[in-house]
Amino acid sequence: VQLQASGGGAVQDGGSLRLSCTVSGGTSDYAVTAWFRQAPGKEREFVAGITWMTHSTKYADSVMGRFTISRDKSSNTAYLQMNSLKPDDTAVYYCAVKPSGWGSFDEQARYVGWGHGTQVTVSS
């Protein structure tokens, strides 16, 4: 499976960005897509996840109400709409996929495919 993430950039406090993650190769095997992020000097953390069939979602408390994860099955693309961005959201964002039923959304070790990161920088 290959994942191509894009959409990162630099914005000011309060701005918005939309990240995209296009999945190819064996897409029917990977029913869960999630976004993780890693800030400088910190461990990688869960941001949001979605199941492709049921559209079930989960968010980290830190982004609840500001970020929205969605998916377009026709293009095998997952999106992360990020609004009201804060400097604390500055990080490299990664998308990842795993089969359905393989642990909870935020269990990083369960994800079997990872995209290259895309940088998000929020300035105050």
Summarize the structure.
This protein is mainly β. Helices cover 0% and strands 50% of the residues.
Any chance you could write out the topology, listing elements then pairs?
Layout: E1 2-6, E2 9-12, E3 17-24, E4 32-38, E5 45-51, E6 57-59, E7 67-72, E8 77-82, E9 91-98, E10 113-114, E11 118-123
Parallel strand pairs: 2-11
Antiparallel strand pairs: 1-3, 3-8, 4-5, 4-9, 5-6, 7-8, 9-10, 9-11
The overall strand count is 11
Q: What's the helical proportion of residues?
A: under 10%
Instruction: Encode the helix/strand succession as letters.
Output: EEEEEEEEEEE
Largest beta-sheet characterization: 7 strands, mixed
List low-pLDDT spans.
Answer: none
Using only C-alpha atoms, the radius of gyration works out to: 13 Å
Overall SS class: mainly beta
Mean pLDDT: 94
Give the N-terminus to C-terminus distance in angstroms: 37 Å
Shape: globular
Beta strand %: over 45%
Report the total helices: 0
Question: Which descriptors would you attach to this protein?
Answer:
124 residues; 11 strands
